[in-house]
What does this fold into?
Amino acid sequence: MDKVYGVMLIGCGHIGEDHLADIYYRDNIHIVAVVDIDDKRAKLFQKKYNADHWGTDYREFLDLPELDIVIIATYVNTHLSILKDCVAAHKHVLCEKPIAATREEGREFYKVAKNADVKVLVAHILRYNATYEKICDLIWNGEIGELKVARMSQNHHALNWPRYKRLLEDCSPILDCGIHYMDIIQWFTGSKIREVMGYGTTVDTDLDPGVVNYGMIVMRLQNGGMAYYEAGWGQTFSSANVKEFIGTKGRIRLTMNAQRGTDCEMGDRIELFRLSTGETETINVQCKYKDMYRQLCGLIDMIEGRPTRAPDIEQVYSAFKVAVAADKAVRESANVIVEDNW
Ligand SMILES: NC(=O)c1ccc[n+]([C@@H]2O[C@H](COP(=O)([O-])OP(=O)(O)OC[C@H]3O[C@@H](n4cnc5c(N)ncnc54)[C@H](O)[C@@H]3O)[C@@H](O)[C@H]2O)c1
It folds into this structure.
């Protein structure tokens, strides 16, 4: 029989809920504890997801023998200290991205994760998204030739403004959300991002000085390709999602199912234009946007020694270095070289 893994969730917020909703009923998962500094959230999650325990301090549960895996879904500035406690207690970790909000903490996170005697997976969820996997396969199979340009934007109409404001205290959307797409570009091309140019600004008037809630960056890859990415979280933004990948022999355009004008039930739409035929093929992909159970199974594969498409800690750290450079670029309206030697 498959092993049943005992799981503790720390952080019963937005993404914490996405994690639990997709895993609590699975045969190989048992929810041992749910923890939040807000006791009401923890109690609610205990009821909803049938956890054995709830609490406001995760350290109470770290030594439970039935606990195997800890999901860290808290604010970014707590990821490192919680990781250290989990590793010291010999528990495997699935930690939300980004690993940290600062260069120093990110470096320490990388070192702790790399040297741990347990498995640590960082939640780059798009690695488990069937549509992005399909696009990656098309690119790797040479369908669009060499990928030279990526056009990407991801703006959020921040309806739950207090939640976004708290996240913005730790990092800009360019670092927090952009890190997914820096990882994607390096994954699709196998080439490192070497340079980032950026601009940023503060749109909402009730943010603290220094908080940047909109940014736009241009990234240059080692292979000569380039990508742009824009991210804004604010009360006056409209939700925008552009993903287009242009190569020497064609292009791929992605429309998420919710943004399709028609045929939403067909899933996400990939339009593949081939220069050789002058025709555009439509590929529909039935895809769960955030496949949390598959991601957790990626960690279980690592624990049980099976191969996985999960990004390893070197790839995670590499994307983090780009995100740190990008964050500096938008804050200083500057051109920043991505340093690799830290
Ligand atoms: N992978 C993704 O697609 C994705 C999407 C959204 C957010 N995230 C990441 O997830 C993390 C959380 O974001 P969110 O949107 O869920 O925020 P959120 O504000 O909705 O939830 C965070 C929760 O963590 C709790 N918390 C904070 N510090 C804690 C601590 N020390 N102990 C216990 N509980 C604590 C808060 O009370 C809150 O309930 C961030 O790192 C964010 O970047 C990832």
